[in-house]
Amino acid sequence: MLEHTFVHISGVGPATERKLWEQGIVTWGDALDLGACPTGFSQGRWANGCRVIEDSITSLRRADHRHFASALSSADQWRAWRDFRRSAVYLDIETTGCDRWSEVTVVGLYDGKHTRSFVAGDNLDELPEALESYGMVVTFNGASFDLPFLRRRFPGLPTDHLHLDLMHALRRLGLGGGLKAIERRLGIERDDDLQGLDGWDAVRLWREYCRGCEESLDTLVRYNAADIENLEVLAEKAYAGLRASMGLPSDGDEEGAPSRE
User: Fold this and answer.
1) pTM
2) Please, what sign has the CA dihedral across residues 71, 76, 78, 80?
């Protein structure tokens, strides 16, 4: 998807990008192979766009997530998910409440293979170092909730990751509501004892743990793990849906032209 992307060029928005695709300029390679300026571009403007494309090709070859985190708007960073999937991490936090004074209790990270849990009073301070090895963070409502909480807790937390916030991506596909409601609509299931649990149950479970109930912490950690592991499934659906909504070919047909319907 990144190689079809032109909205990171100055002055190019979705409408202009679509016009480029319709002229047969579907990939970065198409743009650099073009012998003349496309319709709507002056020679100087197109030359600048080609320099941006060349930088992007180099950055993608180097897997430089920082380049694309800076170049792409927050609404367009979903486009990088497939190319940076191997360095993506799915993140979710639990807290003692929802106000700004609440504390982070559990953070889960899932890299597509392994799940790690970071618990307050145990290993939570290891989280910033763990995040340094990833290029993209995938969350659900992370822009408004998870990441602000973590940045207050860890002022030096890296801020140069690509970020895919699935709440906003899925809303663009008509899937509104909370994470659990969307899972149910899509037929994504959880273990029986985790069915029906929500954020307020997470607060309750932490309080029970603080009163000495170790079993409550185990349930809370598994609840959090279910959140992050299901985010990968939702990311696949969001990426495929958003890509299809733009009329682009499937990833199995990268060289094809986008639909003009």
Assistant:
1) 0.92
2) negative
